[in-house]
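User: Structure please.
Assistant: Input sequence and predicted structure:
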Amino acid sequence: VGQFSAVWIPNAVAYIHESVITVGSGTKIILEKTKENQALADQEWQDAARLYLDLYREVQADLSRSTTIDWAPLTARLDRVIANHPDSAVRLKAAAIKSGVTEVQKAAAGVGSAPVPSTPVTPTPGTTIAVEPVKPGTTPAPLPTAAEIARIVQIPAKPKFVAQGMLETHDYPQVGAAHHLIDGNGQVVAILKPAAGASVGFSEFVWREVGANGPVTLAAPELTGLAKPVPVVEVSELALGR
């Protein structure tokens, strides 16, 4: 009659063809609506991921942009993903991105005024953002943690001096200066002369690492004998550097 194999009932798998299942119209509507909501949630996530990737690259290219970017559209999308997406893994990834954005906003708030939030755009089915595509179900790589983003967007402190280096005596008669600063390679980084009415003790700092403040102009090579234009600082303040 045929061969028989022993099967442990709990491991048995039964298949039923869809043709023998009767689904009411109400159930069909619910299933279709669920599928539509899933598509919208996926679209929302992909749009949020693309927007995040654009802003992340923008901040990496210019850290100061973190103080002027309007983060509201991104955070609004992430909030909707966190609230509505059926996949818990996606919700966690969206929450991680939002946490990082919050750190960015905190860092930006410490160095400048936050931009006026714009009205978040509600996506419609089928809308896309024309940027580098993101593979469905994934987040843009690399995805930094909140701490990493906070570190990346820390705005560098304003330099203490307009010029800094080792002070040497050197005459530049055509620019009215008798000192310059050199870097670790012996290259001239700035020419120094006292500002009008200022009493600057250059002699105290010769062969020492110093910083200078004051108005800056650029001297052409024909005025200095150097290979390239060099800043000339009219020194109002001279102090030990570093």
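Residues 25-61 form the longest helix (37 residues).
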